[in-house]
Amino acid sequence: MAQFVADLLAANRKETRPLLRLALPICGAQLAQAGMSVVDVMMTGRLSATDLAAVSVGSGLWLPLMLFMTGTLMGLTPIIAQLLGAGRVGRIRPNVHQALWVSLALGLLAAGLLYFTVMPVFRLMSVPDEVATRAAAYLAAIAFGMPGVTLFQALRAFSDGMNHTRPSLWISLIGLGVNIPSNFVLIYGGDGLTGLLGDWLPDWVQSLPALGAFGCGIATALSMWIMALAMIHYTRRSRAYGEVELWYSPAPPNWRIIGELLHVGIPIGVAIFVEVTLFTLIALFVASLGEVTVAAHQIALNYTSILFMLPLSLSMALTVRVGNTLGQGRPDFARLVAWNGILVSLAIAALNSLLLWLTAEPVIALYTHDAAVQRLTLSLVILAMIFQLSDSLQVNMAGALRGYKDTRVVMLITLFSYWLVGLGGGHWLGVRGLGGLIDPLGVHGYWIGLIAGLSAAALLLGLRLRRIGKAVMDAQRKLPTQ
Predict the structure, then answer these.
(1) Burial of 328 (0-12, 13-18, 19+ CB in 10 A)
(2) 74 pLDDT exceeds 80?
(3) Rounded distance, CA 60 to CA 57, Å?
(4) Which of 35, 96, 142, 457 has a CA between 20 and 30 Å from the CA of residue 384?
(5) Phi and psi dihedrals of 438, rounded to 5?
(6) Backbone angle region of 440, left / alpha / beta, with phi > 0 → left and psi within -120 to 50 → alpha
């Protein structure tokens, strides 16, 4: 044990800087892409409550679908990282080509679902007719962008696996830069432009229609395709990818390679989908507890989710570092790389908790001036400080395990921890309390359930990482190869 600690401290000095160098651009890209959703909500909300409701309802359908597809395509990252570490550069191109086929299939399938199937879902959800009509138009526009966003995510997974995470940052910023002005023009039309710039604009500009939620969908789809085309252009022109020659000699579908990608990727997609639906379902349960509770829950969740971007980005970088090291045939050092990433995640969790403690009151005041909402939000933020530790641990342990291509067990642990412990336990505490000892805790019960679920995930994933790392190091377990 003493020797492992000494080796881990030595690895910390060597590994922390390259890990953060990979993670920080990923964090920037995540924030830029999250910024697009914030812009959509802000701009449609200024037009009308109906358009805001349409975008909110529509986002509840397409965002989980996109995150599932993104997670599935993330299966490419550890594959590329291990091939790069092993020096098998010639195997990278065919793997990326197969991922592009998968991305196109997923994008077209998602487009079809969003275009043809949403109205029955809205009727089942009893969405008001006008909101449903505008949400369906918004999703029809988003559907056009789905193949673009899946192409971008496949190429991003390739670039990340090659240790080049900055392109996704710059291209995500380009997407945000396209999204903001196109949103303004398409949502508000000529009247909005005239109000902003004056009536000197040409008549044809002033007569542009205000498309509302539908215009927001068009702007988002346009941003998706701009990002995809920019990523294609960069991967064609940049010398950063060495001998890969990605766009030379396209390969037809290869079902064996596609099967390997889906074997690694689909559990990642399911795990991400489970996490998203956990928070969606909690929001639905909390909705019955009153306006003040709903507002406080949403503010606390929004604020803490921004801080979560750094641990999440670190986990994605950790997948690359572990994969690279395993590909180099150094399983002993890969184990140290993984646990060093966990140490760094602990430091980040402590930093996030400190930021929450220092900034909670002024930040909450930016969201609302309602004293009751502020008090309740502050009590939830205190609980959020507690789960920063387990949340950061579990996401980075999952990231390390993905570097080993160990994703199915991660999916099963996520299902158990999030839905059974987190959602089930939280609902029980929120509605029933604890036997006769504790009265129903309302929204606090759901947040305590989150803490329990994330802690269970951290514990189980830690045990899995310890077992896998030791088994691979002792040659008791072979990694799947390409």
Answers:
(1) middle
(2) yes
(3) 5
(4) 35
(5) -130, 130
(6) beta
For the stretch 387-435, pLDDT in tens is: 888 999 999 999 999 999 999 999 999 999 998 999 899 888 888 877 6
Torsion from C-alpha of 313, 316, 318, 323, nearest 10 degrees: -160
- pTM equals 0.90
Concatenated DSSP letters of 365-390: HHH---HHHHHHHHHHHHHHHHHHHH
Q: Measure the CA angle with vertex 34, ends 412 and 42; round to 5°.
A: 130
- CB contact at 8 A, 431 and 401: no
Question: Which H/E stretch holds residue 391?
Answer: helix 371-403
Question: What is the predicted pLDDT for the residue at 473?
Answer: 80
Is residue 318's pLDDT more than 90? Answer: yes
Residue 480 to residue 478: CA distance in whole angstroms: 7
pLDDT confidence band for 477 (50 / 70 / 90)? low
Residue indicated by tokens 């597809």: 69
Confidence (pLDDT) at 269: 93
Phi, psi of 336 (to 5 degrees): -70, -40
Residues with Cβ within 8 Å of 464's Cβ and at least 6 positions away in sequence, in order, are: 397, 401, 406, 409, 410, 413
CA separation for the pair 140, 364 (Å, rounded):
35
The pair phi, psi for residue 434, each rounded to 5°, is -125, 90
Q: What is the distance between the alpha carbons of residues 149 and 132, in angstroms, rounded to a whole number?
A: 24
For residue 373, the one-letter residue type is V
Half-sphere exposure at residue 167, Cβ-oriented, CA atoms within 13 angstroms: 27
CA 208, 213, 214, 218: dihedral to nearest 10 degrees?
90
